[in-house]
Every structure is written in structure tokens, then in C-alpha cells.
Amino acid sequence: MSLTWLDSTNSSFPDIDLALSDPNGLLAAGGDLSPERLIQAYTRGIFPWYEEGQPILWWSPDPRMVLAPNHLRISKSLQKTLKKSSYQISMDKAFAQVIQDCAEPRGESVGTWITEEMRSAYTQLHEAGFAHSVEVWNGQELVGGLYGVALGQLFFGESMFSLESNVSKIALVYLVKQLQQWNYKLIDCQVSSEHLESLGATEISRKEFKQKLSELLPKPGKLGAWEIELPFIPSRGPSPE
Q: Torsions phi, psi of 144, nearest 5?
């Protein structure tokens, strides 16, 4: 099976069922990161992921990791952190800073997949009302957060960062609780990780993910700039099955 190349004469994404199995989910290359192209990608279950010096690579892995807001799992230790925390939480107050901090190299890595081109593209999506951020503040200092894309009643998570212990988890908890209030039904986590699994995320098949897209994208979501609407203290989620 060959890889589709996107250019001015071939601008449409192929069906995600044509994605490669090795590497898992690689579907197409090329094209651009215009807001129109990105929205077209997300509505089809596709996201960009590549490194500096590579062409833009487009992915739709199978299985897909997702988190249903009502399946959020909050451990006893995280619940204690939330109750005792003096952090302040906001939404859409520092999108550019969040994506910049998400782009910083981690651990022994010297590079990042969140290139300058990616930061510019998602900032444009944010300004258009499609991309959103959650910020965790310690006083005046931004110490953690996340960002993603919202379409219909589905939130496509992109990246998160922590400068202090557990703050990315705090950002995710507040995002999930706020999305519940707004009647969002699913968070796309893209690929599997133990970190997300510990919070209640699970894997579903590509077929099931396509069904979720068709169900949730036509439904109305939260328009305009986002903000935290309730100072809630989260409770524990369901126990593992």
C-alpha cells in the first residue's frame, strides 16, 4: 500500500482505512497546515505529527486512545493534591505560552515535533476559535497546561506540559470536568500511554472512532473563547473494571 502525497493537484485526504499498519497510522505526507486543512484533517480523524526537516506527516492510528469524560479516573493521591492545591486554573488566557512550553524538549530529547510552523498554525486555529488551552498557575507563573482542538462535541488533545509535579494532570482534570458540563462526549488522546491509561483513557478501534466522529462532530459545541465556569473540586472517578 502506497503513501498518499498531498499537493496543489491532490489536496484531499484519503480514507483513514488506507493508513499504513507499519508505521501504525501513517496516512499521507505533504500539504500545508492552513486552518482549513487542519479542520479537514480533524473531522476525518487525522492529525499531523512530524519533526523538523521532514515533510508534514498525517496520521490516523488503529487502535485509537480516547477518554470519555464520565470515565475519568482520579487516584486518591491526585484527589488530595486537587483539594490541597493553591494553583489557579484558567482557559484560553495564555495559549501561545502553553504551546511554546509544550514544545520545549523533554528528558534527553533535543528536538520537538511542535515546530515553529506547528505553533503558528495552531495559534491561527486558536484565534479562529477552534483551538483551546488550559493553564495552571502558581501565582503569576505558568507551571503546567495543555492544548487541543474542539469540533462539535469532541475535543482532540494535542499536548501537555508540567513544570511542577502533577500539574498536567490537574489541567486535564479541569478540562474533563468542564467538558462534562458543556456536554462534550469524548476526548481524543491519539496514541496509547500509561499516563493517560491511569486517568481512565482506553483504546478503541478505528471503526469505532469513525462512528464517534459521525455522531459527535455534527452536534453543537462551546463557541468562542473558553473559560472555567465553576470552581469545582473534582471527585474520584470510577474504579477500574
A: -175, 165
